[in-house]
Amino acid sequence: MSAALSPPEDRGGPAQPLLSVKGLLKHFPVKKGLLGGVSAKVRAVDGIDFEVLKGETLGVVGESGCGKSTTARLLLSLIDPTAGEIVFDGERVGSRALSLKAFRRQCQMVFQDSYSSLNPRLTIEASVAFAPQVHGLPRREAVARARDLLARVGLDPRRFAERYPHELSGGQRQRVNIARALALQPRLIILDEAVSALDKSIEAQVLNLLMDLKEEFGLTYIFISHDLNVVRFISDRVMVMYLGKVAEIGRSDDVFSRAQHPYTAALLSSMPSLDPDNRTEVAPLAGDPPNPIDPPPGCRFHTRCPLAEPVCSAKEPPLAVTDGSHRAACLAVQPGSGHSLAPPAAGSEMAA
Amino acid sequence: MTQPAIEIRNLRVTFAGVVRAVDGVDLTLAPGEVVALIGESGSGKSVTLRSLMRLHPPRRSKVEGTMTVAGQDVLAMSQRALADYRGATVAMIFQEPLLALDPVYTVGEQIVEVIRRHEKASKAEARARALELFQKVRIPSPERRLDAYPHEMSGGMRQRAMIALALACRPKVLLADEPTTALDATVQIQILLLLRDLQRELGLSIIFVTHDLGAAVEVADRIAVMYAGRIVEEGTARDLIRGPRHPYTIGLLKSRAEGALAKGSRLDAIPGSPPDLAHLPPGCPFAPRCPLAIDPCRADRPPPIPVGPGHTARCIRTDVSPTLLSPASRSDAAPA
């Protein structure tokens, strides 16, 4: 490989988070009325903080409108944040030390729709070789790298390199997208519903491939999905989002076996049981998620929450530590919050 | 035995003369029975469903076999009889209600139109029925929602409205084509439970097409698994989940992420991809991906083989297929 495009090096050491997001906020203006005046805004992502550690897979789950895809697009600067800061391995993205172009070399994305994310007029080899050439790799080397990667994702270059996207199946196209994301030797890959459109038998193949590639290339993943089973399987840590806010974040096992936020609990029990003798009898939640244009005051979940009390609509719960690295934004688990189920505040000896 | 609600015999649907999308499907539904048709894209499940409504363009598709719904021969109907049949005997709900509902009429107007097309009813009577339907599918503030346009409703609400529309003329059979696939998890379970309640209340026969085994188990009495245009295994939901016998069904169950042993273990993926429907192999279409395939599998199409009461599998190796379920056959599941 040419020195012009050598793999980026680790700067901050293993303890420094690869990605650190602070106060990320995105409001989309909504045009209303005949004159098109801006009178409302969609609070798609409404102030979130999180970190992605080196070498981990962070799963992001939530329903439509919770801001998970907007977050992904903000991370890659595909859209500009209204406010907030993204720090990649110690350097602020867009600063002099880390230009946007340099950052994007290290952070790639795979989208849900495998067809619309490929150029229909380029062979898949040309698609994979495109970005390295933009970043200065000579064409011959870029093509060699593309063929290597196609072989690595299970598409024999002798059979597939000259094909066009429409000549491939959905699973094969998604493998091309993964190869393309790898072409710049990135450190972080954001997978936005990358396996959601695939059939189950193909989904399992692609998940296996993603796990192999992660090990082989030392990658870090942000894995966005609405499928809790898949997220549980692939993630080290999980972030649950609701209406533009982080509801809960923690180690995958903790979140799935000891959910702290009632929304997480409802999401988990909404999964079909796959047990014909033990079908779900009552839906855990009623109604749809509210509109992010006009989110409820206080805790955004209080309109659907089985534990809601008056304090929940008055006070917005912070994302606070509940246990070790496990954090949840729910007053019912936060000491001294005023919620009747809250544990007693530390230090005060209040009777239960 | 009473007359079946649906009887499909040797259904074959060919597109453009070569693509055998459905290749010999037999399926019988008793009145009030719910059957889930599961399979991956291209397996022929939606094509089978659409054939029951005769929705395939006659010029570009060839439909053979027989289909009887509530005693009526579907393929023999005139255009006029077909228009009476659709909506009144059989109704269908789709994955994407925003595409299935007309964007320029309110939902209430669409329901009124359907009722008045099929029955003698005044506008006021039809509207009262529409309101009743909205209450039945549990739409909050139904009176106000009748005057809403589809785009003004949320996804779950639109799906409820489409179900109300489908039930407007009291059909005996409901065909559901992936009705919960596009919905969020917390809404999906609400719609599945609603369908189950409505089925019990109205005694509907339902064919529920889905690719999600979990959703199928929530609503179906029986499950039929499709692969390459044929039903490869059919049985009660319980038999199929607890004792699957076709290697494809077993593969589907084993490749699910929730079945995986531990983090870091690999999923038991089915290798390869589904066959090209324009060039089907002569034998069992699953043979190229099947770990148990032997020469006879590649020579002839396996017939449905009974493996239990009401449980059949199109596989000549059902005697050994249960060994695939045991953990010992997990070739690469050992933790690293």
Describe the protein.
The complex is a heterodimer of chains A (352) and B (336). By secondary structure, chain A is α/β, with parallel strands linked by helices. Chain A starts with 18 loop residues before the first strand and ends in a 24-residue tail after the last strand. Chain A is built from 11 helices and 12 strands. Chain A is globular. Helix content of chain A is 29%, strand content 22%. The radius of gyration of chain B is 21 Å and the shape is globular. With 336 residues, chain B is α/β, with parallel strands linked by helices. In chain B, a hairpin with a 2-residue loop joins strand 9 (222-227) and strand 10. Chain B has helices at residues 45-52, 79-88, 97-100, 107-118, 123-136, 142-145, 155-166, 185-202, 213-219, 237-242, 247-254, 295-299, and strands spanning 6-15, 19-29, 34-38, 61-69, 72-73, 90-93, 173-177, 205-210, 222-227, 230-236, 305-308, 311-313. In chain B, the strands form 2 sheets. Chain B has an 8-stranded mixed sheet, sandwiched between helices.
Could you name the key traits of this structure?
heterodimer; A: 352 residues; 2 domains; eight-stranded mixed beta sheet; four-stranded antiparallel beta sheet; 11 helices; 12 strands; disordered C terminus; B: 336 residues; alpha/beta; 32% helix
Broad shape of chain B: globular
Number of strands of chain B: 12
Indicate the proportion of strand residues of chain A: 15-25%
CATH superfamily of the largest domain in chain B: P-loop containing nucleotide triphosphate hydrolases
Could you say what the CATH architecture of the largest domain in chain B is? 3-Layer(aba) Sandwich
Uncertain segments of chain B are: 328-336
Query: How would a crystallographer describe the biggest sheet of chain A?
Result: 8 strands, mixed
Radius of gyration of chain A: 22 Å
Helix amount of chain A, in percent?
25-40%
Biggest interface found: A-B, 48 and 45 residues
Identify the CATH architecture of the largest domain in chain A: 3-Layer(aba) Sandwich
Order the strands across the largest sheet of chain A as they lie in space: 6-7-8-3-9-10-12-11
